[in-house]
Each structure stands twice: as C-alpha cells, then as structure tokens.
## 1
Amino acid sequence: MTPDVTAAIIPEMSNACVRYNAAVSRIFRLLLDAASVLSMLLWVATVVLWVRSYRAPGPIGGFAVLGARYRLHSDRGRLTVGGPPAAPADQVAAATERLRGLHNGNIRWQAVHAFVSGKPMVDGLEPLPMGRSSQVHAWAWLMESAKDPALQAALLQILEDPDRFADAHIALVFSQGQAYTGGWDPPPGPTLVYNWGELRVRADADSPDEVSQWLRGRRGMTWSAEPAQLPAVRDLWCDRLFRPIVSAPYWLAAIFFAIAPFLWCRSRWRRAYRRRAGCCAACGYDLRATPDRCPECGAIPVPSGASVGARRGRVTS
C-alpha cells in the first residue's frame, strides 16, 4: 500500500472511530436519562409507601407467579412479601382430593327467622355448606384440620374456581373461627342481595309478592353467589392466611432507587463543570489548544447559552 493511500485511509478511519465513540456516548446518556426518570418515580413511590406504612399499615396488593399468589404487606417502615402456607405438594394434593365435594351448588341457604308482632319474618340467611349427607364426614374432617397448612393451601387453590369459591369461603370462615356478620344490601326488593361474611348472594323474584311471601316464610328462593366477587374473596383469604417470606425496610429500597438519579445529577454537574473550565463536556479533554473541535472524541463545543439539544456532542464527517 502506497504512502498516499495510507495517508488518505487513516483520517477516514479516525473519523469513523470518533463518530462511533460519540454515538455510543449519546446512547449511554439516553439510557441513563431513562433509567434515572424511572428510578426517580420508584423512589417517590417508595417514600409514599414508607410514610403510609405508619399511617395505614396493611396489605397493598399482590401478584401471581407460576399459579401461586403472593401478597404485599406494608407495616411500620417495612415491606413484606408473603405467600400461601408452606406444605408438601403431595399433602396439598391429598387435601384437594378430600375437598372435591366443595361446590357452590352444594350450599343450602337457610332462612333465619325472627318474630315481629308475633309473626315469623325472615331476618337473614345462614349457609349450610356441603349440605349433602355424603359430605358430612368430609366437613367434620375439615373442621378438625382447620390449622393444617396443606388444607389451607388446598382451599386457597379452590378459591380460584368460580364454581367452587363460595363454598371454599364458607368452609374457611367456619374452620378458621372468623367472625362474620350479615345484612341486606340494599333492603329486600325485587332482587334480594344478602352479605354474609364478605360474601354476596342474591336471588331474583318475579314480583314483589314473591318477596313478601318469602319474608313471611311461605315460600323458598334460589340463592347464588355473584362470580364477580371472586378476586375480592380470594385476596381476603390470601391476606388472612398470609405467611411472610421476605421482608425489607423501605429505607434500603429508597437508597437503591436513588442511585440512578444521583448518577444523572452527577453527570450533568460534571459536564457543566467541564464546559466552564474550557474542557470537552463529553470526555473532559482540554480544548484550549483546539477550541473548535475535541481531538479526543470529536465533539464540537457549543456556546453556554445554546439549547439543551445543541449542547450534546456533535460530530462532523
């Protein structure tokens, strides 16, 4: 290769390297800016949850991984991740098999009567879970094994089934000894809606006369649980059977999320300092001998009053 050809190629290779380095630097700055904005938002959310953990402690949400549901609890400056009760898979499978009779269609809702002016009136509802006689033995076993982690894990899985969640909820209420209340919502009308232990059941009547006869105990009604409430009922029991897995203080998360914004601010300050000192804002090279262009990275200095976009390093071919 002749000296003339070599002399022509070397400047082109140098310019290509300069353009490459400037492009990589620009991409890095853009990624740092995006990460800084996201990290700042997460830092703000962390601080808000930190303050909230003292004023309103309790569950703040949840997520699912490989079919298992996990809950987030915030309490007195700490965030805790909890999951379902720990139990061997074979024991959970055995408990699930014994509970195969749980089904919303097996619930019999019994009217609770009160006497008003000497006449019986329906005052509320009481469920008779697993009402078929062939399931009485399974119900007795459920009551005796209420604190068994395998049973609790099996019931949590059943709560995912729209056709079985109501019966599983009732079984958990009774077996866990949870206090429950009942009430009409709204007052009895053409559509009867009753709240029992955070479970809404309803019955539709063709006429107000049918409702009146039922309230007087003269006829029956067909009740069913509303499927739309399944997520609320499921999350309710996920929180009640919450088993802490890992916990961390909010201050640790706040420090972690503050790293990227700190680096961003440091980078901006360093570039401004280099510009005031007469150095290249991109790489810090002394530009006193070459004020028109940085020989190190190829960036072209711009006046301090230029726009933000113009201040980013530019390269000429």
## 2
Amino acid sequence: RGSTAAVAVQTAPPPPPAPSLSPPPPPRPRPVVGAQVAPTPADVAVIAAPAPLDLNHVVERWDDIVEQVRASGRGMLASALANALPTAVSRTGVITLQLDASHDGDLEVVERALEGGAAELLAILRKQFDGVTKVALRRGEQLAAPTGGRRLTEDALRADKMAKLRKRDALLGRAIDVLDLELID
C-alpha cells in the first residue's frame, strides 16, 4: 500500500556574512608642506574668502585684529593699535587710523611701533580684507589738554571711560542711553 507522507522542509536562515579579515584602510595622510600640514580640500572650503574692504567691516573686526597682532608677538604694536580706531578707508586700500585724543602725546611711539610692525599688520589685514595696501596714522582733531591744572576725579575718569565706550560701539552707546547704565568698578 502506498502511503503518502508529508515531508516538511524547514529552511534555516542564511548564515551571516563572514567578517572581513582585512582591517579598514587607514586614513590617507595629509601632505606636509614645510613645517605645516597642508589643508585638505574640505579644509579649504571652510576657509572664508577675505571680505571687501569697508570701514564698517574694519571697525567691526578691529578688536580681533588687535588680538591677532598681539598673538603674532607684536605686543607693543597691539597696545598702540588698541588706542586707535579706523576712521577712513580709501579706494586705493589705505586704512586711516586715528588715536584717541587722550593718547595724542604718544603719537611718536605709536608711529614707531606701526613702522616696525607694518608688514605683520598688513599681512593680518590682507587675510581679512581684499585690497589693503597701507595703514596711515592721523593725529586727532582735538589736542590733548594739558593735565597740569586739571584734577582727575573718580567721576571724571568714569565719564572719560564712558565716552570711549560710546565712541567704540554705537550700539553700546545707545544701550547706555536707553537703559541709563553706569560704570561700576
């Protein structure tokens, strides 16, 4: 007699793929140029192009520029530049700096520091702005008042500092007026 038997075929799950025996390839070394590592194409894309030369942009970035000068080892020049503000930018790429009226007596010292570090300052400015050719220094319109007969008081020092802060940043000056802010030691 013939019997029919049902045969159940059970399929097993396929075996997992065999692990690769070779390690992943090491990252490509970056070429070395001199003592510096050359940037990769991804690094180059991140580096921003210099901004167009504009007085507003220069004033906006002035504190950063002073810090870059200080970091490059030119502390004397950085200190001199901290007491100056960019006041004009010409079509030919000349940035004119003006000393605060209170530092007009230091004009010769600042001029010497500027002459000695002009190459470094121009290099830093050219990295940030297109078309910079020269930095010129202009004496302030107001001559520094002789301090022999003037007595400095705490209120006068605060007023001078507040005036400098207002001059450096118009937005801060507006905030001082609107919020009636005072300097605290």
